[in-house]
Amino acid sequence: MVLITGLCTFLYHLPQIYKWLLKPYYVSSLLMTVAFLAVRKAPGVCEHLATQREDGNSCDFDWRETEILMFLCAIVMMKNRRATCVMTCKPPLYMGPEYIKYFSDKTIDEELQKDSRISWIVEFYANWASDCQSFAPVFADLSIKYNCAGLKFGKVDIGRYGEVSNRYKVSTSPLSKQLPTLVLFQEGREMIRRPMVDKKGRAVSWTFSEENIIREFNLNELFQKSKKLNKSRDLKEEEQ
Questions:
Q1: How far is CA 117 from each of CA 81, 130, 148, 210, 227, rounded to the nearest angstrom?
Q2: Distances from the Cα of 155 to the Cα of 77, 115, 174, angstroms
Q3: Residues 6+ apart with CB under 8 A from 165
Q4: Per-residue pLDDT, 6
Q5: φ/ψ (deg, to 5) at 57
Q6: Averaged in consecutive runs of 10 residues, what is the pLDDT profile of the chain (240 residues)?
Q7: pTM of the entire structure?
Q8: Rg over CA atoms, the chain
Q9: Per-residue model confidence (pLDDT) at position 151
Q10: CA–CA separation, 191 vs 171, rounded Å?
Q11: Strand positions, DSSP E, 8-134
């Protein structure tokens, strides 16, 4: 069952992985790696290469080259942990009730600017990030308590939509620790962002608890103001 789930996840994200890998940097790196291995193992060519092996066999890797390859493999795994997690990590486990609208790269701008009277609290997340999975029930509970006509909750998977990540300046790098990121939008403009980001592009330490979010985003006050929009809509409907 685990193998089937992993295979299905891999096939589902295959177009995204191809798009991510088909960049000049990765293509050139792959070609150089294959060329190095081919030259090292090619008969008639490898005999003329220098080696530090005691047996003088230049067609096999020496200890120095083996150490370099192992070190590079470790670096690649650390830097590209996002791609590895796309294929291996499980999606968020939370399946409870929520009043959240899920955006794509084509709908987020339109929704945020559609009605200037509506405030949006948007979570930028990635399925592979464990912090985002842990925060999912907290954000869902807030959406149930505070959702109204003038205050909406939304989410966008920037692990899937890389253009949204660049557009709203939310880094998906594990080193930046910016996932998840909550942003309050009013009249289509960003008003509050948590966690904040320092000059080096790293997130300032902040706890994603329900109490902190209510206090930092002034949810109680914002909710009372947003309910007035709901009442005005009801009055218009009654008049019509």
A1: 40, 34, 12, 25, 11
A2: 28, 18, 19
A3: 124, 158, 171, 172
A4: 56
A5: -80, 100
A6: 57 58 68 75 73 69 73 68 46 77 95 93 92 93 94 95 94 89 95 92 90 95 83 51
A7: 0.61
A8: 25
A9: 95
A10: 19
A11: 101-103, 119-125
Tokens of 92: 């968020």
User: Residues 177, 170: contact at Cβ < 8 Å?
Assistant: no
Delimit the domains of the chain by residue range: 27-89, 100-238
Q: How far apart are the first and last CA of the chain?
A: 56
Angle, vertex CA 8, rays to CA 158 and CA 72, nearest 5? 65
Residue 41: how many CB atoms within 10 A of its CB? 12
Neighbours of 135 (CB within 10 A): 21
Q: Which two tokens stand for residue 181?
A: 């990121």
The DSSP element (H or E) to which 193 belongs, if any, is strand 189-194
Whether CATH 3.30.1490.100 fits 100-238: no
> Six-digit token pair at 232?
């005005």
- Alpha-carbon distance of 34 to 31, in angstroms, equals 5
Positive or negative, the Cα torsion across 16, 108, 168, 136? Answer: negative
Per DSSP, the three-state class of 17 is: helix
Helix, coil or strand: residue 66:
helix
- For 171-189, the DSSP string reads ---TTTT--SEEEEEETTE
**Which pair of tokens denotes residue 123?**
């979570």
